[in-house]
Amino acid sequence: MWQLTASLGFVKIVERFVVLSLEFQDELAGVSSLLSKARVAATMADLETDGVVSFTPAELTEPWNMDDPKIIVKEKTSSSPALNDVVEKLRDKTGDELSRIVKSKKFDPLQGVLDNFEHNGLVSTHNPGPFRPTRYELVLDTTAEEVITPLTQVLLGRREPTYEDRLLLGIIESINATGLMFATANADWEQKDFSNRVHELDGHHPVLSVLHAQTSGTSALMTKSQLGPATL
Prior knowledge:
Blueprint: H1 13-23, H2 32-49, E1 53-56, E2 70-73, H3 84-90, H4 98-102, H5 110-119, E3 123-126, E4 135-138, H6 141-155, H7 163-174, H8 178-181, H9 191-201, H10 206-215
Antiparallel strand pairs: 1-2, 3-4
Helix pairs in contact: 1-2, 1-6, 1-7, 2-7, 2-10, 7-9, 7-10
């Protein structure tokens, strides 16, 4: 059973996911739709931890079924300023199914997270010119290491995972990116070995169920992602 705890680690789940996406942006080129869904799912998990949203069964007659719950939005703000634009957009969405929220790019927090990173000196921007997307790059290599290292230790069984670690790894696995992002964790592991390890850490959580249902048919895109400049 999942238990909410105070947020631990470098940054929130979605912010850590964006750090990883920037670190691997060339390899992740061409899968922007998968990344967007993953960011929204991570945001909903963060907002649940903050007490901004909660989930309720879609069918009151099936209180055990939380595979695609409805959301309840509360009169609170997020502990991360980068997410408060999303919170405002969610205000009239109480009663909507989580799956509808996750698939909507309207709730993708990417720009707010990047703006916050830039404000805090974590990323730099490069504008390649007309008709080409702005490229964001991490300023310090240690920024990605602060996210990758503890998650690698979790995968190898050397560190007890936090609630946020489990969710983040589950989100990464839902878009089939675990092997890509943690390839150096164990040179003998194949993708299935990384997947099996994440599944051992798994717990049944609504955001993971919804994200997996929406991406299971498209995660093969991860194997064909060398399509040009990355668009996060």
